[in-house]
Amino acid sequence: MFKHSIKLRLIVISVLLVVIFSVLITFRISDSLRSFNSLGQDVDIVTTGLIRINSASIAFKRIRVDLRDYIISSDTDAIVKNRILSLIGLLNGHIEALGEISPNDEITSTMVSLKENLLVFYDVGGRIITARDEGNLEYAVTILTEECIPISNLIITNLTNLSSMYETYSDDANLYIQELARRSTIASILASGPAILLFIGLIIYLSMVIVAPVVKIEKEVKKLANGDLVLKEESIRAKFEAGSLWRNLVGSVARVREVIFSISDITSTVETAMKGIRETSAQTAESAAMIAGNSQNVVLMLDGTRKLISQGVSDMQSAMEKMLEIKLKYSAKTEPEGLEQLGSYMGLTEVQEVWLVIFDRNKDASWENKLYLKTVDTVYVTVHVVGC
Question: What pTM was estimated for this model as a whole?
Answer without folding.
Answer: 0.42
